[in-house]
Amino acid sequence: MLLQLTVHQSSNAQTISETKKNVYTFQLSQEIAAPAWRLVDNCFKEAEAMNADYIIIQLNTFGGELSNADLIRNRILKSKIPVYVLIDGNAASAGALISIACIKIFMKPGSTIGAASVVNETGEIMPDKYQSYMRGMMRATAEQRNRDPKIAEGMVSSNNYLHDIADSGKVITLTTTEAMKYQYCAGVASDINEVCSLAGITNYNVKTYERSTLDVLIDFLLNPIVNSILLMVIIAGVYFEFQHPGLGAPLFAGIIAAVLYFAPLYMDGLAANWEILVFVIGIILLIAEIFFIPGFGVTGALGIIFIVTSLTLSLIANDFFDFTYSSTDNLLYALLRVVSIMIVGITGAVFLGRKFLTTTVGQKVVLTSTLAHAKSFSQSVKELNSLIGQTGIAMTDLRPAGSVEVNNVRHDSISDGDFISRNDKVKVIEIRGNYLVVRKNYDF
Fold this sequence. Notes:
Elements lengths: L1 H17 L2 E8 L5 H16 L4 E8 L4 H12 L5 E10 L1 H8 L2 E4 L4 E3 L13 H17 L4 H6 L18 E3 H6 L5 E2 L3 H8 L4 E5 L4 H10 L1 H20 L5 H19 L5 H19 L6 H16 L14 H31 L1 H12 L9 H5 L5 E4 L6 E6 L2 E7 L9 E8 L2 E6 L4
Parallel strand pairs: 1-2, 1-8, 2-3, 3-4, 3-5, 4-7, 11-13
Antiparallel strand pairs: 5-6, 9-10, 9-12, 10-11, 12-13
């Protein structure tokens, strides 16, 4: 009986000793912005789901947005799983804050940590109120991890605390050797295995984060070129539908592009619910202007303002018009980008729209959708050609098709691209098939 108990206890001890630790690792080698925060949050969730014993961040960044750096910092500080960091080159600015939040810091040879002053998009130092907040955040983080808070504070503002480093009296940036000396580095390591060895982790499995298909798709949609193309499709689709109501396809394309535009921004935390709601309201106002309200007035103008506002604010970090973490330069850059793309999109819509209207399919679609129930007053081709250059009155709205009256005779007609309201003065510029192509006549 005693022998069986001894064997059983020995077997349990062997099983426990053979239980391997789970080490979860991922690379954070990008600008600290909304995508970086989403990456960190997803990785921590995956590590928690697999009951990881340790998380090791492989960090190499020059910094980024303070708001997202603070989110990452708090995620690390509140993690029930011990979090270590291996600095692979750079832990500057926001990267320094993230590193200091980790329980242990390891550095590859030749790496640096520090230079955490708050700057704007052009690299200019922000006013002291921003630096003061950052200094407090750095001190608090260092204190929680039992590191010298004065060194952390010195990474934000010029100091005279450390006299034996090369840039004494300036903002602190520590090399690997200097970080070791001042206990801001627990050891020099070249890879994850060396980190585990220095940390006393034995008998372990390493699980490395792998990007999912969804992550790849989101990164693709967030690519500035793709993002700009989607923005152009949104604007061009809305504009073309406004000029040629009833087609449906341009507006549908714009809505699909809007979904692809907002979805990754929403998932990355940039586009908020209210910004998407503002965009939807703008679209509804434009639809009301196109189909229910004649001419172009306040409703259409408000729709455009709502759309531009939504597209602009979704590109910058803000909390319902609170731009604490975004400078005026951020806002102006986003607005300039949206307006520039809007100009390009509208120009493209006008050009492609006119080309489309010259095709057989374009003429058939436009005339079928708009003139299906209209009475035709067409004459012979020779008689119609004689009307080129003459003026008349629009009997209906032309968006782009409708009817006009020339020489007291009503004709099927189509605008050359611009919206023409009922009773506007028009001039015949071309004959296509059995209908007149007209434009507004400002000299009538």
